[in-house]
Design a protein that fits this description.
Elements (H helix, E strand, L loop, with lengths): L3 E7 L5 H15 L4 E7 L6 H11 L4 H14 L3 E6 L7 H9 L3 E4 L13 E2 L2 E2 L10 H6 L6 H17 L1 H4 L3 E4 L2 H8 L10 E3 L20 E4 L8 H11 L3 E4 L5 H10 L3 E5 L3 H10 L2 E4 L9 H8 L4 E4 L2 H6 L6 E4 L4 H12 L2 H18 L2 H19 L16
Parallel strand pairs: 1-2, 1-3, 3-4, 4-7, 7-8, 9-10, 9-12, 10-11, 12-13, 13-14
Antiparallel strand pairs: 5-6
Helix pairs in contact: 3-4, 9-10, 9-14, 12-15
């Protein structure tokens, strides 16, 4: 059994990366692997100007993090190190420490931070790719893509850029795991200059909630679940719902909460439910006609889409990023152009008017889950990638770019 050390740097606000880190930890342990975790928290930086200064400095190289990893390696003797996030506290110092200890590294890229300081390939309501091929992305700094701060954006750009010059990203990681084929293509065609075999597609997964009951009754409304923010396409969704009286339930919280509440107060078909925990989201998913994902940024692999598929719920998604690949039009959902309220409304009306169509797409969504997004499938994927990285490090077997065959939209 491979001994696996998992490393993760938590942001100040909880997010999907944290959930994936914990899920993979539990999955590996359930299959009998000795697993230890090394966790870093941005709260360690404190608050205020001093915290920002430390984040800027530690983002280049944090010697304390390197020492912690060296000690963990000495104590646990792992066969492989799997990193989910290293910014800013863990820092690229952990890659150098792992290399010195002879431990191969696998790193999941949950976002595009290494090739764009804003991490989302999104700016001013549009896809933004000017930074992808640049060693130091001046335009991103000018725009202040990271936290609306030119200074903090410059710090992130300098951190990733320095380690491009040093070759850290090329030599410090045996396998990068990406969530979509779009991400794989974009990462390979970037300033990182990685080898093709270094970047492998591996989706997220969720525990099986159980197949939906064939006689279950669904209400005739759309469901949005997620952060209420501009990049999620909330304004497009609200415009479509208000203009066409689309029945819509919104679950979540964020900076556009007031806009959602205002729309709900003036549009009888729209209801704002507020934030919900996992149990509440699962119940809402089983009850709706379809999940709607109008994201205008380049999403990775939102867990809410996996939850929809697993519950037999069809997905209406914008033709962009992860959802745009996961949803096969006319098979397990429908697609529309991002930022197009009329296209969204047309797709929504097709499902709202045809219960049989929605049921058929939902059944295919469940099949998509069973094929690609179950714990069992994901474990096989992870194990093959780990074994390839370990074998390559030991110079025994050739590298494997894709550990299993799959059909992917």
């Amino acid at each position: 059994m491979l001994r696996i050390l998992l490393l993760h740097n938590y942001y100040q606000q909880p997010g999907g990366e944290d959930a994936v880190f914990r899920a993979e930890r539990d999955l590996l342990r359930a299959h009998g692997h000795p697993v230890e975790t090394l966790e870093f928290h941005n709260q360690e930086l404190g608050t205020g100007i001093w915290a920002k200064l430390k984040a800027g400095l530690f983002g280049f190289y944090n010697p304390a993090s390197a020492r912690r990893l060296r000690q963990a390696i000495e104590d646990f003797q792992p066969d492989i190190l799997h990193i989910h996030n290293l910014f800013p506290v863990a820092s690229p110092a952990v890659l150098w420490a792992a290399r010195q200890a002879g431990v191969p590294v696998v790193m999941t890229l949950h976002n595009y931070r290494l090739i764009c300081p804003g991490a989302l390939l999104y700016a001013d309501g549009q896809v933004y790719e000017k930074s992808v091929h640049q060693l130091f992305p001046w335009d991103a700094v000018r725009r202040g893509l990271y936290r609306n701060s030119r200074l903090q954006t410059a710090a992130v750009a300098a951190q990733t850029g320095l380690h491009k010059l040093l070759g850290t990203w090329q030599t410090g990681v045996a396998r990068y795991l990406v969530l979509t084929e779009f991400a794989r293509r974009r990462i390979l065609d970037s300033s990182l200059r990685l080898r093709a075999e270094q970047v492998a597609y591996k989706p997220n997964f969720i525990a099986d909630p159980g197949a939906p009951q064939p006689d279950s009754q669904r209400a005739g409304h759309l469901l949005f679940v997620g952060r209420l923010s501009p990049e999620k396409g909330l304004q497009t969704l609200l415009t479509a719902a208000a203009t066409h009286a689309l029945p819509l339930v919104v679950v979540g919280d964020g900076p556009l909460r007031a806009a959602v509440e205002a729309c709900a107060s003036t549009t009888p078909s729209v209801r704002y439910q507020g934030p919900a925990d996992g149990t509440g989201v699962a119940a809402a998913m089983r009850h709706c006609r379809a999940l709607v994902m109008p994201s205008e940024c380049v999403e990775g692999m939102p867990m809410v889409v996996l939850e929809a598929f697993a519950s037999g719920t069809p997905v209406l998604a914008s033709r962009r990023g992860g959802p745009g690949e996961m949803v096969k039009p006319g098979v397990n959902g429908l697609l529309f152009e991002p930022g197009d309220p009329e296209g969204l409304a047309q797709a929504a009306q097709a499902l709202l008017a045809d219960e049989a169509l929605a049921a058929r797409l939902g059944t295919a969504g469940r099949a998509s889950y069973e094929t690609l997004y179950t714990p069992a499938v994901n474990y096989a994927w992870l194990l093959a990638l780990y074994q390839a990285a370990v074998a390559e490090a030991r110079d025994k077997l050739p590298a494997v770019a894709k550990p299993m065959q799959y059909e992917h939209a």
